[in-house]
Amino acid sequence: MTQHPAMPPHPVMTKHPVDEVPPVRQLAAFGLQHVLAMYAGAVAVPLIVGSAMKLSPADLAYLITADLLVCGIATLIQCVGFWRFGVRLPIMQGCTFAAVSPMVLIGTTGGGLPAIYGSVIVAGLAIMLLAPVFGRLLRFFPPLVTGTVILIIGISLLPVAGNWVAGGAGSADFGAPKNIALAVFVLAVVLGVQRFAPAFLSRIAVLIGIVVGLVVAVPFGFTDFDGVGDADWVGISTPFHFGAPTFEFSAIVSMLVVALVTMTETTGDLIAVGEMTDRKVQPRSLADGLRADGLSTVLGGVFNTFPYTAYAQNVGLVGMTRVRSRWVVATAGGILVLLGLLPKLGAVVAAIPAPVLGGAGLVMFGTVAASGLRTLAQVDFRGNNNLTVVAVSVAMGVLPVGVPTIYAKFPDWFQTVMNSGISAGCLTAIVLNLLFNHLPARSGSAAPDPDGLAGGGVEEGVEKPREEIV
Questions:
Q1: pLDDT in tens, 309-345
Q2: 175: left (phi over 0), alpha (psi -120 to 50) or beta
């Protein structure tokens, strides 16, 4: 008999950490942690817009439950995905703050909620159409630009955490020592758990910090559970609850500007999560993620809520916990759907005091900024102008954060773009990278490479990590 040579063993196919499904108890804990990290931001947009339009408490509650429901659906679309919709990364979706000012203006002077929803639907359709175009722009996001944008995202979020630490913007006891003490206590718990607890517990350090902070806050009178008793047990959002949408030209134009801003912000967030999870975003997956944003925004217009975007708060949580599974965030989306259908549960979560969220937020948002620095560590800063690109971009990104009224005298469309530190910094970084690293160099300063791009060692440090996807 002839001996057949032994067949080589089949290589064991291992799942990427993004696609791994943790055990159910971990899914629930990690998912709840993501919900708590973004809840305050998620309900802030309907609260601000509804209050500005002087809606009744019942209508305000309806807006919030509708928002939570669509937040959950949008998150599921982004994480789980179907066909060409969804980036399939751990990305939480929520209402964008870039749309607040235009929506308040439309709602109070230009046609009320129906005009808002008409413009939101058009903006969502525009995002879906423009998604492939943005996908092809990925080559303009080398580590020099992405690191700068991620750094700006983190810095832009820190004032949000600061307001929470002080008690929440507009609160009667804003800045009271007891608020700051509670936030510092929560921060200490989060850091202590992360440093000394077993591996699983350290990954839910934020959740543990918030729960311990809430337990401590109750006897000291920080919490108000009155809203829980008033909330309904079940609430279902029906399409066009506030009337059929109307399509007004000025409202649509302003919302299209918002759409461009949110696409820029989402691009930065998707690239940031791609870097943190070691699954770099490709042009096609970026287009799929933006297309999911557009679909969610259309759903927002239909189900009485607002434009949707990736939430930077949760980018920080992914970086801090190093839990990379998209199914964790999909679980968080499922929890949001439940909160949207069960208003009483939503009211319980809403009762968490702002300082408790602030203590956890300091770690999460600082983690985003630190991740930007880590990405910038890949960039070559010797013998080129890359330091200038970072310096000016960070300055332009932080300017509207530090001086919120700096562009108050400018036209509305300009304010929509530049009042977002993320979009202002991102646009500046892209333009300066093109100016210093892509335009032909001055004669004698650096030899052009075969493609006619400025040489001098810049391209190696700036573009090389993206070569395979261009």
A1: 888 778 777 877 778 889 999 999 999 998 888 877 6
A2: left
Cα separation, 205 vs 320, in Å, equals: 9
Token output for 76: 């599921």
Place of tokens 């064991």: 12
CA distances from 257 to 22, 25, 119, 246 (A): 40, 42, 11, 18
pTM listed for this prediction: 0.72
The CA radius of gyration of the chain, in Å to the nearest whole number, is 23
* Residue 10, pLDDT above cutoff 80: no
Residue 451 buriedness (CB in 10 A; 0-12 / 13-18 / 19+): exposed
Report yes or no: 120 and 107 within 8 Å, Cβ to Cβ: no
Q: What is the distance of C-alpha 223 from the center of its chain? A: 27
What 3-state DSSP class applies to 7?
coil
> What does residue 192 show for φ and ψ, rounded to 5 degrees?
-65, -45
Apex 423 CA angle, 383 and 134, nearest 5: 90
Backbone φ, ψ for residue 223 (5° rounding):
-105, 150
- Cβ pair 210, 196 in contact under 8 A: no
Higher pLDDT residue, 432 or 378?
Answer: 432
Tell me what pLDDT residue 297 has. 93
What does the alpha-carbon distance between residue 431 and residue 393 come to, in Å, rounded to a whole number? 9
Residues sharing a CB contact under 8 Å with residue 180, sequence separation 6 or more, in sequence order: 165, 166, 355
Alpha-carbon distance of 119 to 378, in angstroms, equals 41
Provide DSSP, 109-143. Answer: HSSHHHHHHHHHHHHHHHHHHHHHHHHHGGGG--H
- Identify the CA nearest to 290 among candidates 427, 86, 447: 86
Residue with tokens 């990290």: 37
